[in-house]
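Hi, here's the filled form for the chain we discussed.

Project: internal
Contact: R.S.
Residues: 81
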Amino acid sequence: MLDCSVSTHRQKADPSVDEILDRFTEDAHVVVINRGTRGDTMFEREHFEIGYRSMGAIDYYLFITVESEKMPMILDKYNLR
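And the returned structure, exactly as it came back:
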């Protein structure tokens, strides 16, 4: 989360998945990025990253890593092509 009244740096928050998803409204900023292959041990395979920002008084962020072969289904389901 980013609460500039506390710090200009993002702080770790530990809400449940349901709690964080409740913060994402129509005003949320969503990006889908084709990250390709980074070449490090964590992401040896080509992948995408889906990022959410709540855009509220306190911003909450959520980043999801998705294997490339699963992205066509997600792109089609949410009409992101």
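Let me know if anything looks off before we file it.
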